[in-house]
Design a protein that fits this description.
The structure is a single chain. This protein is mainly beta. The chain is 2% helix and 46% strand. It contains one helix and 39 strands. The strands form six sheets. Strands 25, 26, 27, 28, 29, 30, 31, 32, 33, 34 and 35 form an eleven-stranded mixed β-sheet that branches.
Length: 495
C-alpha cells in the first residue's frame, strides 16, 4: 500500500515536507450531482506517488441566511494519508471559517456568517494531518451560488473578460526594505537571525541559512504600496526558483486582515525557473496590500530568487495615472502628541503637514516650532492609514535616534517604512524647517532657536551706525559703499 505522509515531521528524514495537490473537479453548487470536490495529492516525500480523494457535500440555506453543511469524504483514510486527523473546516471567502463536527463519518455544522441571495461564493473544505502542522493541509475547493431553495440558477449570460478595453500597468512599488515586524523566521518556532534578503524594484532574493520544518516558519511580508477598490481589475505574476526543492507559499492580502485576500497558493520550488500568474481579479477590494512569501520547510542553506514581480492593474483609457509621490507628508511625534495616524484624526494633523514643493517632485517642506522637552522625537507618515503602513523614519527599527545640529543644520538618511524617530536635544526650543527628499532618501533640518530669533529682532530694532571703507564713522551715508552695524548684525550697503 502506498503511504502519503502529510505529517510534516514524522522523523528526521521526513522533516521539511509538504503536500502538493491538483484539483480534478472543483465542487459546484449547493447540492446535486456536481456538489463534490475531487483532488489528487502528491506524496511530499518522493514528489511522485499520488492518491485521489473526494469531498461530497450538501449545503442548505437557513431561514437566517446561514448555511448548514453536511459532508463526507471518500478515499481519505489514515492508512493512506498517514497522520490524518478528524478535524475538518469549511471556509468561504468573505464569510469566514466554520469548524465541523463529525459523527459516523459525516461532518456537519452551520456557519456563523450569513450569505446574500444570488451571490456566488468560493471556498473549500480542509482536512488536516495534524492540528499543529499547516504543511499537511488537504484542501478541497468549491464554488456555489447561494439560493434559499438550494438550486443553482440557470445559465446566465456569457462571462465577459474584465480586462476588455483596459490597458495593463504594473503598479507594484517595491519598498527599500521589509519592515522588521513583517518578517518571521523561526526554525522550530524559535526566532532566528540566520537569514538575509535583498530587494530591488522588481525582485527579491532570500538566503535562508537555517532549515525550517513547518509552514509559517519563514514568512516575509512585502508591502506593495498598492490598494485596490471594488472597481479595479488586477493580477499578480512573477518568476521563481530555489537551489533546493521544497514547497513554499504565496499570498496577496490586505494588511491586518488575513481573510481578505486574492492569491493564496503553494509554490513548488525547484532549481528550474517557473512562472506564476494568478487569475484576473475584479470586485475584490483590498487596502495596503501585502505580498507574503512563506518558505517554511526550507532545507538549510537555501537561496530563493523571485524575479519579474508584477502587480498588474488593468486601467481604462480615461483613468488617471496613479500618483507616483504622496501629495503631502504628515509630521507625527511629541509635538503632535503621538496621535494615531488615521483619517479619523486628520484634523489633529492639519498644522503638521509638509507640502510637496511641486507635484511629482518627491520633495516636501514645512516649518514647525518646538518647545524644549525630554524625548522630543518625531517621524513622518505619507498616509493616515495606521501606525504600520506608511511610516518614514530615522531608522528601520522602532527606536529613538538622537541628533544634534551643526551650525544650525542637520542632514541625514531616511528609511521608507522605517519606525525609528529623530530625537531633538532636550534643551532645544525654536523653529525647524524640514526638507524631506523621498527620491534621494534624505532629510535636512534647519534650526532657528529662540535665541536666534531674539537676536534677529534686536538687530532690526537697534540704531544703525555707518562707516566708510576706511573705518571712519559717517553721519549721513550717501553716494558710496558703507559698512552698516546694527546691534550684532554687520552688513555692507550701497547708498
Amino acid at each position: 500500500m502506498k503511504k502519503f505522509f502529510t505529517l510534516v515531521c514524522l522523523g528526521a528524514s521526513l522533516c521539511g515536507t509538504a503536500m502538493a495537490a491538483e484539483t480534478v473537479h472543483k465542487g459546484q453548487g449547493m447540492s446535486g450531482e456536481n456538489a463534490y470536490s475531487e483532488v489528487t495529492f502528491t506524496n511530499a516525500q518522493d514528489n511522485t506517488t499520488t492518491a485521489t480523494a473526494k469531498a461530497v457535500y450538501t449545503l442548505t440555506a437557513t431561514a437566517e441566511n446561514n448555511v448548514a453543511v453536511e459532508a463526507k469524504f471518500e478515499n481519505l483514510d489514515p492508512a493512506t494519508f498517514i497522520g490524518l486527523v478528524d478535524a475538518c473546516y469549511f471556509f468561504v471567502e468573505g464569510v469566514g471559517e466554520t469548524t465541523l463536527n463529525v459523527a459516523d463519518g459525516v461532518y456537519t455544522g452551520t456557519t456563523a456568517g450569513t450569505f446574500t441571495e444570488g451571490t456566488t461564493y468560493t471556498g473549500w473544505f480542509k482536512r488536516m494531518s495534524s492540528g499543529a502542522y499547516y504543511g499537511g493541509d488537504l484542501i478541497f475547493p468549491l464554488e456555489f451560488t447561494f439560493t434559499k431553495g438550494g438550486e443553482e440558477p440557470g445559465p446566465g449570460p456569457e462571462p465577459t473578460d474584465p480586462t476588455d478595453g483596459r490597458t495593463p500597468k504594473n503598479v507594484y512599488n517595491a519598498p527599500e526594505t521589509i519592515p522588521a515586524d513583517n518578517i518571521f523566521f523561526a526554525p522550530g518556532w524559535n526566532p532566528s537571525d540566520q537569514y538575509s534578503y535583498t530587494l530591488t524594484a522588481d525582485a527579491a532574493t532570500f538566503v535562508l541559512t537555517a532549515a525550517t520544518f513547518e509552514r509559517w516558519q519563514a514568512q516575509f511580508k512585502i508591502p506593495t504600496g498598492v490598494s485596490f477598490t471594488a472597481e479595479d481589475v488586477y493580477q499578480l505574476e512573477f518568476d521563481y526558483k530555489a537551489d533546493n526543492a521544497f514547497t513554499g507559499f504565496v499570498k496577496l492580502y490586505q494588511n491586518g486582515d488575513d481573510n481578505t485576500f486574492a492569491v493564496s497558493e503553494d509554490l513548488a520550488l525547484t532549481t528550474e525557473v517557473q512562472h506564476f500568474k494568478s487569475p484576473v481579479y475584479s470586485n475584490k477590494p483590498m487596502q495596503n496590500v501585502l505580498l507574503l512569501f512563506d518558505f517554511g520547510t526550507n532545507p538549510a542553506n537555501t537561496t530563493i530568487e523571485v524575479t519579474n514581480i508584477k502587480l498588474i492593474k488593468y486601467v481604462t483609457g480615461d483613468e488617471p495615472e496613479p500618483a507616483t509621490t504622496p501629495e503631502q507628508l504628515y509630521l507625527n511625534g511629541a509635538i503632535v502628541g503621538w496621535v494615531e495616524p488615521s483619517e479619523a484624526n486628520a484634523d489633529k494633523f492639519a498644522d503638521y503637514i509638509l507640502a510637496e514643493t511641486e507635484k511629482g517632485s518627491g520633495i516636501y517642506t514645512g516649518e514647525f516650532e518646538f518647545e524644549a522637552k525630554e524625548n522630543n522625537s518625531f517621524r513622518f507618515y505619507s498616509k493616515l492609514d495606521g501606525w504600520d503602513n506608511s511610516s518614514i523614519g530615522a531608522s528601520q527599527d522602532d527606536k529613538q535616534n538622537p541628533f544634534t545640529f551643526t551650525d544650525n543644520v542637520y542632514e541625514g538618511e531616511i528609511f521608507i517604512g522605517g519606525k525609528g524617530s529623530w530625537q531633538l536635544p532636550d534643551d532645544f526650543a525654536g523653529k525647524v524647517k524640514m526638507t524631506v527628499n523621498l527620491n534621494e532618501k534624505n532629510i535636512k533640518l534647519e534650526a532657528e532657536t529662540k535665541q536666534d530669533s531674539i537676536e534677529a529682532i534686536e538687530a532690526e530694532a537697534a540704531e544703525a551706525v555707518y562707516y566708510n571703507l576706511q573705518g571712519v564713522r559717517v553721519a549721513n551715508p550717501e553716494n558710496g559703499i558703507f559698512i552698516k552695524v546694527a546691534g550684532n548684525k554687520v552688513e555692507k550697503v550701497i547708498r
